[in-house]
């Protein structure tokens, strides 16, 4: 088998759902993802390799896919304006940060301060990017403040449904 073309996300960053989206879009056989999620390997348990096949570009291609699935103008209406739903999204310094910024803030109009820990870091800022009650305590604390109507935290590669907290 020969490789005719390589597609790599900007700065090497792609969430797992975004990889699946690209694989389908460009009709590739599959894609190799270097991610710790779920099956951690390596000395620090923070490295793993996944191979995704064609069942599933970077932020922009994924954004186009989401535009076809969700009613962006309705969500934008919800997140902006005087009666806006205030949200708190914690990307836990994993790969979802650029997606959260681009899609929720730039595209859907959520205020920039709605999204925290959006810079992907090699050590995820020192806490495992596990969006549960042990590690996403800052989300829990933020929600307890009562200011936000919706909060969510993402795991490192954006594959697991985020932990969600509703105050509605
Ligand atoms: C959170 O995830 C970690 C790592 O998987 C686990 O050890 C811990 O028990 C989990 N905490 C909760 C509250 O589920």
From TrEMBL:
Sequence similarity: Belongs to the phosphohexose mutase family.
Domain of life: Eukaryota
Protein name: Phosphoglucomutase-5
Coiled coil spans: none
Domain Alpha-D-phosphohexomutase alpha/beta/alpha: 7-58, 62-158
SUPFAM superfamilies named among the record's database cross-references: Phosphoglucomutase, first 3 domains
Alphabetical UniProt keywords: Magnesium, Metal-binding
Top-level taxonomy: Eukaryota, Metazoa, Chordata, Craniata, Vertebrata
Record-linked InterPro entries: A-D-PHexomutase_a/b/a-I, A-D-PHexomutase_a/b/a-I/II/III, A-D-PHexomutase_a/b/a-II, A-D-PHexomutase_CS, Alpha-D-phosphohexomutase_SF, PGM
Claim: Metal-binding is one of the keywords in the record: yes
């Amino acid at each position: 088998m020969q490789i005719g073309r390589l597609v790599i996300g900007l700065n090497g960053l792609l969430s797992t759902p975004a990889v699946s989206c690209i694989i389908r879009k460009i009709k590739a056989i599959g894609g190799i993802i270097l991610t710790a999620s779920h099956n951690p390997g390596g000395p620090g348990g923070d490295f793993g390799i996944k191979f995704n096949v064609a069942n599933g570009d970077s932020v922009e291609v994924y954004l186009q896919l989401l535009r076809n699935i969700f009613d962006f103008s309705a969500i934008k209406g919800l997140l902006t304006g005087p009666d806006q739903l205030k949200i708190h999204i914690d990307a836990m310094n994993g790969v979802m940060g650029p997606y959260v910024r681009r899609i929720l803030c730039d595209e859907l109009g959520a205020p920039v301060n709605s999204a925290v820990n959006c810079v992907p870091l090699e050590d995820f800022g020192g806490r495992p990017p596990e969006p549960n009650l042990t590690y996403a305590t800052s989300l829990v604390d933020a929600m307890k403040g009562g200011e936000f109507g919706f909060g969510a935290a993402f795991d490192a590669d954006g594959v697991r449904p985020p932990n969600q907290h509703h105050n509605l």
